[in-house]
Write a structure and sequence with these properties.
mainly alpha; 10 helices; 0% strand
């Protein structure tokens, strides 16, 4: 377990928000504008933009341009209800497994649609932003900080990461009144913990944010 103190979490979240806050705000606008098309099981320019913006801004390596429409299409094939966007827990093992199964399904369906490799990192990031209270992020920073072995197969790595993150959030949720999530939506403990993991995993020395985070929003006319 990470067992980050309140002060450590506040410091990491505030530092992350200071550098990447406008990017976070822009991504939340993209995310909330994807809901209509998902409920209709239809892809859309906004959904494709969310996929590709996450890939571009967070440097997901080796992802080809065909991932944008294929992951977006795979997402539309999931079950979606309006209630899913408002669920705030519980942060238990069953919820972690639900997240792992959902990410695994998007990865499998995007492969079936023609994507050449399993994109667990990008699929988890996209689903996290669509369902920030239900799906945690996976990337190497997260895996390393959580000390999850890379000798496992990717589905097992992500499931292990999800379970450890949910245990951590459950501990925080049960025994800590600290207001550590900052003031940038989405105010989800999964989002907040991802900021902490990113910062502690090496994000502190990562490049500054993009110069014009609102470019994709203007381009879509949102």
């Amino acid at each position: 377990m990470l067992q980050l103190s309140c002060a450590e979490r506040v410091e990491a979240v505030n530092a992350f928000n200071e550098r990447y806050g406008e990017m976070e705000r822009a991504l939340w606008v993209l995310s909330t504008n994807c809901r209509k098309s998902l409920l209709l099981h239809e892809s859309s320019p906004v959904l494709e933009a969310l996929v590709w913006t996450l890939k571009s801004w967070w440097g997901v390596q080796g992802v080809t341009a065909q991932a944008k429409p294929l992951i977006a299409q795979a997402l539309t094939e999931l079950e979606w209800t309006s209630e899913m966007f408002d669920v705030r827990g519980p942060f238990d093992s069953a919820s972690a497994d639900w997240a792992a199964d959902r990410v695994g399904t998007v990865v499998a369906r995007s492969l079936k649609l023609g994507l050449p490799r399993r994109e667990f990192s990008l699929c988890s990031k996209t689903l996290h932003w669509l369902l920030p209270w239900r799906v945690p992020v996976y990337d190497n920073f997260v895996r390393q900080v959580l000390e999850v072995s890379d000798s496992l197969d990717l589905p097992d790595i992500y499931r292990t990461v999800a379970r450890r993150i949910f245990r951590e959030v459950k501990e925080i949720d049960a025994g800590d009144d600290c207001e550590w999530l900052g003031d940038i939506e989405p105010l989800s403990p999964l989002r907040g913990l991802d900021k902490c993991l990113w910062w502690r995993g090496g994000g502190e020395s990562a490049p500054s944010g993009v110069k014009d985070p609102w470019g994709p929003i203007r381009g879509l006319g949102l």
